[in-house]
């Protein structure tokens, strides 16, 4: 996986320059991808104001029988946990999901056992927003993987100052029971 991210970054840059869509994991194996992940880094304009108070969150990803992606998230903040439950409908392309035609989720790449990169776009009446998320099975992230994730950021039209490398959160602060 770690050797694949730089080549993915180059491929994404070429695709974006050609006006193509965000790439997805070829032949995404939903059974292998389902499970508990830690959001260890996120890049988004939406999180700029909160990024200093954020900690690593947990995401439980599952798939419905019809192929839709169900995601439960808990974001531990300074004084509370923010919980979300999201349902993304399969868009017809494996690895691409949509929620109410306002939010797109792409599983850009995963090795299923260590890390994954998600791209999320939110289309609203106001300013559209975009995020890249680095998910890992463990809360620890290697410096090499983090560097490769950082190299991917500008290829998606985001900037490095939007990056939040999320510190570990303890099990008592996650809100999972």
UniProtKB/TrEMBL annotation:
The keyword 4Fe-4S does not apply. Residues 1-20 form the signal peptide. Gene3D superfamilies: 2.40.128.20. The keyword DNA damage does not apply. Residues 34-168 form the Lipocalin/cytosolic fatty-acid binding domain. InterPro entries: Calycin, Lipocalin, Lipocalin_CS, Lipocln_cytosolic_FA-bd_dom. SUPFAM superfamilies: Lipocalins. GO terms for molecular function: small molecule binding. Keywords: Signal. Pfam families: Lipocalin (PF00061). Belongs to the calycin superfamily. Lipocalin family. This is LCN15 protein. It comes from Sylvietta virens (Green crombec). The gene is Lcn15.
């Amino acid at each position: 996986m770690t050797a694949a991210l730089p080549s993915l970054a180059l491929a994404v840059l070429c695709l974006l320059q050609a006006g193509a869509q965000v790439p997805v994991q070829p032949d995404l194996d939903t059974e292998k991808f389902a499970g508990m992940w830690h959001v260890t880094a996120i890049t988004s304009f939406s999180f700029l104001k909160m990024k200093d108070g954020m900690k690593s969150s947990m995401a439980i990803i599952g798939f419905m029988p019809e192929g839709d992606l169900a995601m439960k998230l808990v974001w531990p903040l300074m004084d509370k946990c923010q919980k979300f439950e999201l349902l993304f409908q399969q868009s017809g392309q494996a690895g691409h999901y949509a929620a109410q035609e306002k939010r797109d989720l792409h599983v850009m790449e995963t090795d299923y056992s260590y890390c994954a990169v998600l791209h999320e776009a939110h289309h609203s009446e106001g300013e559209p927003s975009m995020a890249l998320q680095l998910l890992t099975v463990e809360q620890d992230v290697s410096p090499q993987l983090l560097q490769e994730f950082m190299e991917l950021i500008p290829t998606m039209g985001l900037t490095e100052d939007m990056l939040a490398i999320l510190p570990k959160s303890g099990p008592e602060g996650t809100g999972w029971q």
